[in-house]
Design goal:
Helices cover 39% and strands 28% of the residues. 31% of the residues are buried. A hairpin with a 2-residue loop joins strand 25 and strand 26. The protein is flat. By secondary structure, the protein is of the alpha+beta class.
């Protein structure tokens, strides 16, 4: 760039010589080059601040949208566009830089111009020298990039496929689908852990080999199968693709995973079905509706001695060696006995079953030739089987007894044959005797109807009893009654004993032997309480800090503690009370016939006193306490067992919030508070969409000039039912339910847009929560909010509480550094209430320190408070931090803060939070 001529007036209009204001030619060159390089191709303009005259270099008329216009028109347009800069420059110090971006409507469409300028002085003369460039294209490109980033983020967040990013082997990002894949409750359980924690050992070597081959950014692996480990102990089959990428400038790998569990199961099912067709022992044949063979399985080849190639395409009757009409078989009930012939002429005894298909028939031809031969050995088989078999003739007398029946019933065949079938007593499952006329064999003999799986108890001649699973079936198929009957039975005495034990296990806790949740709910049902006199007290007992024992000493120690607690609850409760374990460290005692709250409290105190006794486990003396929630129910109370347990649980929760080791009674107001909390949490999810959230702004005052320099945006919620909800109530809900990132982004965009419109000269301060610091999209969200609102990032100050910074200092430092690189100002809020040290704070890129209102409130009343505030201000100034005092409500406090050198202040004395329209 050549040295510019001395600036003298504009292009032929202004005559005031301002060359002396901006120095010699070399200095002009450096000044204008510095300004022009910051915006690219630019045109120079200037303003003599003493003479109030504008000047410019040729080409300005084209840039500012008035090509070919006269000097007055160009001057007017330029004056209008740079008005904000000229106003600020009049009071600015020398070499103050200014930047302004202005929209411009032109016949060719909207454009955006960027102005950069600097105050130049020489002697007493002052000038504002600047450049202007058309940044429309760059602005559009930035918007396209921001929109592209938003679309990519949404695609990743909403993708049904799991997507994670790991850097140096540690997971740094996981989308919601990935959290669901591993059955985690939140991304926080996943992030920061080695990716190998979630990959089955058999799949790890292959995964490491794949990513080792990805040498350059963008390199992608081929899809490959792996096994994913889940939090619930299960596994998921996945197909994954790895992509070499970067994370915050460092090499990383992005992994996209698709669940192929169902796909593999379906493939396995198809293979299984194909294997069944190929390996079933019966001939499986498919035909068209005309009876032409279309499928002939290997068993059909073996049965009929014909290869599939020779059978397919032939008429079914030809290949089976006998007439076969599928329609006729269906008309006869779908199953017939037939005689077919092999290809060598050998006769076959076949049972033919037919089923209709959409375009034909499926036939199963079971070769029963061998069975016919086996019938001759029936007697030997019956004698050898372990199931008891009796044959009862039409007259009701026993005709045969196999050895298993002799052993099971304790009788001999010689004694039993010829006796009535009622040779032993039978009882039903309830222990009632069964009359001989209703014996299963008697019913079948009289009616011909089979009896299957009847459970009876038989009396042996030696006086012992045996449980039998007994069936009876008519032997004759001609329908003549009375019928000969075969009675078969199995000894299930041992199985009954096991079932009884299983029934006990199904209704009792395996660890403590106490009643489980199902039994507890049943004992609290209205019918179970209706016949009881007095009140029923439900004590919901939760051990305090049991997790510490479990985590520090191991689950075996924890289990032993739970067993001891269960035993002590049983011993300390009254006779007739129901003691149960609901799960984990939660127990319940149901006390019937309680006279009132005093007796229930006395019982709870007695139980707590017993639980407080030391528990000796593995040489250690452990102490446990409990929080107890109590519900009292009248006999006519309509609440079922689940409702009463729920209300007792609410009372227990209230006891814990009051300090643990306490007793609390349920009341309706407690339920309403909990229900309100749940309702607010649900409604908070839709509040941004329904325009229920809005921002109030509280001014921040410079104590040296008494001027308003910034405003803090404070979130407010106007609920359609409950009205204005305090942030103290709904912000913790947002934090606990992971809504804070969505609401925080909504607040940031709204505040930036409103301030840019209503008070662009003020700096905007907004709060960040601890969860927002964990959000990998925080930096891009801040950038987009400032960009869309037209605010420079430096006009935005983000406040982070001391406790949030200390929760994960390393992550906080990385996030704050990224925000600082963006140009955003950073402040630490509520200083002095956390547990940080000044040394820790020095490692963070902070600009501002806010003194907590608890210290401000003590000014003028406590020497200690004034000493603390003095120290905070001195420390902050020592590291070049601006100090803001919060909660200033009295003039005395303000005077003390000024005297101590505090930079800025905010509070009700200086201005209450108000809607943006009142700024």
């Amino acid at each position: 760039m050549a040295t510019p001529p001395r600036i003298r007036g504009d292009a032929g209009s202004a005559s005031h010589d301002v060359s002396g204001l901006i120095g010699d030619a070399d200095f002009e060159h450096e000044l204008l080059a510095d300004l022009a390089l910051s915006v690219g191709a630019a045109v120079v303009w200037w303003l003599d601040l003493d003479a109030d005259q504008l000047g410019w270099m040729p080409g300005l008329d084209v840039v500012i949208g008035v090509p070919g216009s006269d000097t007055d028109t160009v001057r007017a347009r330029l004056a209008e566009l740079v008005a904000p800069l000229t106003v600020a420059a009049r009071t600015a110090p020398a070499w103050q830089d200014f930047e302004l971006e202005q929209p411009l409507e032109t016949p060719g469409g909207p454009r955006r111009l960027q102005f950069r300028a600097r105050v130049s002085t020489r002697g007493s003369a002052r000038a504002l020298v600047g450049v202007v460039a058309d940044v429309t294209r760059r602005h559009a490109q930035q918007q396209e990039l921001a929109d592209l980033a938003d679309r990519y983020r949404l695609l990743v967040e909403l993708s049904p496929e799991a997507i994670v990013v790991h850097e140096a082997g540690l997971l740094v990002y996981a989308n919601p689908a990935a959290v669901r894949f591993v059955r985690a409750r939140s991304a926080g359980e996943v992030l920061g852990r080695p990716i190998t924690d979630f990959v089955h050992p058999d799949s790890q070597a292959d995964m490491l080999r794949r990513i080792a081959r990805l040498k350059v950014p963008g390199a992608t692996s081929d899809p490959s199968d792996a096994v994913l480990l889940r939090f619930d102990g299960g596994v998921t089959d996945i197909e994954s693709v790895s992509v070499r990428t970067t994370w915050e400038g460092r090499p990383a790998f992005q992994v996209i995973m698709r669940d192929v569990t169902e796909q593999k199961a379906a493939a396995a099912a198809l293979r299984y079905q194909a294997a069944l067709v190929a390996h079933v022992s019966d001939a499986l044949i498919a035909t068209t509706s005309d009876g032409v063979v279309t499928s002939w399985n290997p068993s059909a080849e073996n049965v009929y001695g014909r290869r599939a190639a020779d059978a397919i395409g032939q008429v079914i009757g030809h290949v089976v060696g006998a007439p076969l009409d599928p329609v006729a078989v269906l008309a006869a009930g779908g199953v017939v006995q037939a005689e077919h012939r092999r290809s060598d002429g050998e006769a076959l005894a076949v049972r033919v079953s037919v089923a209709r298909m959409d375009d034909g028939y499926v036939l199963i031809c079971a070769d029963e030739t061998a069975r016919r031969r086996a019938e001759h050995h029936f007697t030997a088989v019956v004698a050898a089987i372990g199931e008891g078999v009796l044959v009862v003739g039409p007259t009701g007398l026993v005709e045969s007894v196999n050895p298993a029946a002799e052993r099971i019933l304790g009788v001999s065949a010689k004694e039993a044959i010829g006796q009535a079938a009622s040779l032993t007593e039978l009882h039903d499952e309830a222990g009632r005797p069964i009359p001989p006329a209703l014996f299963p064999s008697a019913i079948t003999r009289a009616t011909g109807r089979s009896q299957h799986g009847r459970i009876v108890r038989a009396l042996r001649p030696d006086g012992s009893r045996v449980w039998l699973s007994l069936s009876a079936r008519a032997l004759t198929q001609d329908g003549k009654l009375p019928s000969a009957t075969v009675v078969s039975f199995t000894d299930i005495t041992e199985r009954r004993r096991i079932d009884s034990r299983l029934e006990h296990e199904a209704t009792h806790d395996a660890l403590t032997g106490l009643c489980n949740r199902t039994v507890t709910i049943n004992r609290l049902s209205p019918p179970a309480r209706a016949h009881r006199s007095g009140l029923t007290a439900v004590l919901f007992i939760d051990l305090d800090k049991f997790k510490v024992i479990n985590d520090s000493l191991g689950h075996s120690t924890g289990d032993e503690v739970l067993r001891v607690v269960g035993a002590r609850l049983s011993q300390s409760s009254r006779r007739g009370d129901v003691v149960g374990r609901l799960g984990g460290d939660e127990f319940t005692v149901i006390a019937y016939g309680v006279t009132g709250p005093d007796e229930a409290t006395a019982l709870a105190d007695h139980i707590r006193a017993e639980l407080n006794q030391p528990i000796s486990v593995g040489g250690r003396h452990l102490h446990v306490d409990a929080s107890v929630g109590i519900v009292l129910a009248e006999p006519a109370d309509s609440r079922d067992g689940s409702d009463l347990l729920r209300d007792a649980d609410l009372a227990m929760y209230q006891a814990k919030t009051e300090g643990r080791g306490r007793i609390a009674f349920f009341d309706v107001e407690l339920r309403e508070r909990i229900q309100r909390r749940l309702q607010l949490e649900q409604d908070l999810r839709t509040a941004p969409l329904n325009d229920e959230l809005w921002l109030a702004y509280q001014p921040i005052i410079d104590l040296r000039t008494d001027k308003r320099t910034a405003v803090e945006g404070l979130l407010r919620w106007t609920h359609p039912r409950y009205g204005l909800i305090s942030p103290v109530e709904f912000i913790p809900l947002a934090e606990e339910s992971d809504l804070i990132t969505i609401i925080g982004a909504h607040m940031l965009h709204t505040a930036a847009r409103e301030i840019a419109t209503l008070a662009p000269e003020l700096q905007l301060t907004v709060n960040l929560s601890a969860r927002q610091l964990d959000d990998p999209w925080l930096v891009s969200s801040v950038r987009n909010a400032a960009h869309k609102a037209g605010l420079p990032p430096s006009a935005l100050c983000l406040e982070i509480t001391e406790s949030a910074l200390m929760r994960d200092p390393a992550l906080a430092a990385r996030t704050l550094a990224a925000l600082r690189d963006l140009g955003v100002q950073l402040a630490i809020d509520d200083f002095g209430t956390g547990h940080s040290s000044l040394a820790q704070l020095l490692t963070l890129p902070l600009d501002t320190l806010k003194i907590d209102r608890s210290f401000t409130a003590g000014l003028g009343r406590s020497d200690e408070a004034e000493a603390i505030v003095t120290s905070i201000i001195a420390m902050a100034h020592a590291v070049d931090l601006t100090v803001i005092a919060e909660g200033v409500e009295q003039m005395e406090q303000l005077d003390i803060l000024r005297a101590l050198g505090c930079d800025q202040a905010q509070g009700f004395l200086l201005g209450r939070p108000a809607p943006g329209t009142e700024l």
